[in-house]
Design brief:
Strand content: under 5%
Shape: globular
Distance between the termini: 76 Å
Largest sheet: 5 strands, parallel
Strand order of the largest sheet: 2-1-3-4-5
Number of strands: 5
Number of helices: 22
Oligomer: single chain
CATH architecture of the largest domain: 3-Layer(aba) Sandwich
Number of domains: 4
């Protein structure tokens, strides 16, 4: 017996091929869809079948193409809008196809939550964006709806896809609540953090500073939300290489938390952990270790050894020990972290994959390349299954495995993985993201070892330009890549 449809596909005849692809994509994902080409039986009254299908559907995906709605799609739209008047759980979701514009969307639908597929690179991205909307609670308001869609897409790794619904939520928040409402600050903060993850530092700073100003006005200087805003801005300064400013902001955030919440409050411990990370970045590893040991001690005593925050503290301390050269101490902690994550979360949870990669990095540093490779291959396989091919976690796993292959002398294998990772980073994060530039540098190093000096030089030159533009010419990453480029130029000249 056929599953009762919940999604009705409405489209213009010129968009039939795209509608057919979306029908297949959604059906294969287990989403029940009514698509006229698949459901209408020759000889039946198609108009009554359409009316029944629309009456039984809970969601209509209204495909918006490069032209305004055609005659029959306009008829469907009138019937659909009539139903919204009597059923507040019924939803209409415009879907922008490649080549479409807002002007091609019926004016009556321009206030609705929409799905933007115009920059979706592949089927996985399309499915994530559609599923994010279809799984949102239809009983919530527009603000919560759009914000939740953004949250879902950000969690799924579709950072660029998350921006549009967040901006929709922000526009609704401005209109309903005013420019200085705390809910507006919350959404500004989410947009800022998303832009930060994308490497778009200027829009990230605008949003994060706006959130800080609203929170300071609404709550005063001594509020945990202000502390969180300061910490986010500190992270932005770290991305720019301004570690002194980052350290100053993290210390301000910690002082507020200590004063308002007390020494052992979870938010204070988080602020201490953030400051420790910044201290590690500026090279004060001893101070970072002392803070992390203090955080771990308190969390273990108050929350227990198996609490997620305690496990995170153990992982942070392990990373600092590795930076200090104490690989044995780091390995012991990372083994505990991985065992706890697996026991509590299962093998395919994102935090388990992170723990596997961290442990593999320490094994690599200790010279256990076979052990590191085995863990990295397992992590990559699980990440592909859980997140898909182009999620940041999958791309990180690709990059990590390539490093181990290179250390084992498998330069061809490393090159294949890095080329795949770089192509994906260009699509997902764009050509101007620092992470894209770092992968360029990794691929260039591999190409150089293989003797392809010209290709390596081209990549390094592009990477330096990206880092200079985004991070500045004095950032450590920029100077490191510029040094590599100079070195390869000297070698190319036979010096």
């Amino acid at each position: 017996m056929a599953q009762e449809p919940i999604v009705f596909l409405s489209y213009a005849s010129k968009d039939k091929l795209i509608a057919r692809d979306l029908y297949r994509l959604l059906s294969e994902a287990g989403i029940a869809v009514w698509f006229d080409e698949a459901e209408l039986v020759p000889g039946t009254r198609w108009d009554s079948e359409l009316r029944n299908a629309m009456a039984n559907a809970s969601v209509v995906l209204m495909l918006v193409g490069s032209l305004p709605p055609g005659k029959w799609q306009a008829v469907e739209l009138r019937a659909i809008l009539d139903r919204t008047l009597s059923d507040d759980r019924f939803r209409i979701v415009p879907v922008f196809l490649p080549g479409s514009t807002v002007e091609n969307l019926a004016p009556a639908l321009r206030a609705y939550q929409s799905i933007d597929l115009r920059d979706a690179e592949n089927e996985d991205s399309k499915l994530k964006r559609i599923a994010a909307v279809l799984t949102a609670d239809p009983r919530t308001g527009e603000l919560a709806d759009s914000e939740e869609v953004g949250d879902r897409l950000r969690e799924a790794g579709d950072l660029s896809g998350a921006i549009s619904p967040y901006q929709k939520a922000l526009a609704v928040g401005h209109a309903r609540l005013g420019d200085a409402h705390p809910a507006v600050a919350r959404i500004q903060r989410k947009i800022g953090v998303t832009y930060l993850a994308m490497g778009e530092l200027e829009p990230a700073e605008r949003c994060l500073r706006t959130a800080l100003e609203i929170d300071q006005h609404a709550y005063g200087e001594n509020d945990p939300r202000v502390s969180a805003d300061l910490s986010n801005l500190a992270t932005l300064h770290e991305h720019r290489g301004d570690f002194a400013a980052a350290q100053r902001l993290q210390m301000q955030a910690l002082e507020i938390s200590r004063r308002v919440l007390g020494e052992n409050h979870p938010d204070t411990l988080k602020a201490m952990s953030n400051l420790a990370g910044t201290l590690g970045s500026v090279g004060d590893i001893t101070a970072a270790r002392l803070l992390e040991e203090q955080v771990l001690y308190v969390r273990s005593a108050v929350l227990g050894d198996d609490h997620p925050d305690t496990i995170t503290s153990r992982s942070n301390l392990a990373a600092t020990l590795a930076d200090m050269g104490d690989l044995g101490g780091a390995r012991a902690l990372q083994e505990q972290v991985l065992a706890a994550r697996r026991r509590l979360l299962g093998d395919d949870h994102p935090n388990v994959l992170i723990a596997m990669n961290n442990f593999a990095s320490t094994l690599h540093a200790q010279g256990d390349l076979d052990g590191a490779r085995a863990l990295q291959e397992q992590s990559l396989q699980l990440s592909r299954q859980v997140f898909g091919e182009e999620h940041p976690s999958t791309l990180t796993a690709l990059n990590n495995l390539s490093g181990t292959l290179r250390s084992q002398g498998d330069l061809v294998g490393a090159r294949v993985l890095l080329e795949r990772a770089l192509a994906a980073y260009r699509r997902v994060l764009g050509d101007a993201h620092p992470t894209t530039a770092v992968v360029m540098g990794n691929l260039a190093s591999t190409l150089r070892e293989m003797g392809d000096i010209s290709a390596a030089s081209t990549l390094l030159h592009e990477g330096v330009q990206i880092l200079e533009r985004v991070l500045g010419s004095e950032h450590a990453s920029t100077m490191s890549m510029r040094k590599a480029l100079s070195s390869i130029a000297i070698r190319g000249n036979g010096v």
